């Protein structure tokens, strides 16, 4: 049977962005879930329990390539090109003062993120949430309660950083801060522990891509 390409993409990325993509694949593989192969999480593949893994480094003139390939016996039913791995949805809504806002709502009904400000139009609010979609998955997490930060922002990849901090009431919170200093998202509420706050922001990292946008 001749080979058939079901899905293919090729983009130039920073090492940081590639690492974020591979972590997403690794998380799904470790859980035995369908693996989202595109950034929008709309194309997934379900590998066999023990596929063959081939790793190869090649040189072609002055070009080096690292190829990682998984292979198993399967059929087209292992691939879904019209899925939605995200477990959340964006809601665009108008507040009592006539400002437009967005919030990210998990399928369990919990609001896991919202914008830190109101916008003059739905278009501006959509631009705000698009910035979160583009930056949250690859953003580093900096614990502001520690003096020594292990993670530093590199060129390329995300243009924002998650800041983890304790508020005046002793609750743990997170905010997503753009390189320009603007807070583009936060958790909307405090958590009883740092671990719970980390779980909350990880859920945002995993679910912003592919989340549908609904206007109320």
UniProtKB/TrEMBL annotation:
<dbReference type="InterPro" id="IPR051141">
    <property type="entry name" value="UPF0339_domain"/>
</dbReference>
<feature type="domain" description="DUF1508">
    <location>
        <begin position="167"/>
        <end position="214"/>
    </location>
</feature>
<feature type="domain" description="Amphi-Trp">
    <location>
        <begin position="1"/>
        <end position="79"/>
    </location>
</feature>
<dbReference type="InterPro" id="IPR036913">
    <property type="entry name" value="YegP-like_sf"/>
</dbReference>
<feature type="region of interest" description="Disordered">
    <location>
        <begin position="194"/>
        <end position="216"/>
    </location>
</feature>
<dbReference type="InterPro" id="IPR010879">
    <property type="entry name" value="DUF1508"/>
</dbReference>
<dbReference type="Pfam" id="PF07411">
    <property type="entry name" value="DUF1508"/>
</dbReference>
<feature type="domain" description="DUF1508">
    <location>
        <begin position="95"/>
        <end position="143"/>
    </location>
</feature>
<dbReference type="InterPro" id="IPR027598">
    <property type="entry name" value="Amphi-Trp_dom"/>
</dbReference>
<protein>
    <recommendedName>
        <fullName>DUF1508 domain-containing protein</fullName>
    </recommendedName>
</protein>
<dbReference type="Pfam" id="PF20068">
    <property type="entry name" value="Amphi-Trp"/>
</dbReference>
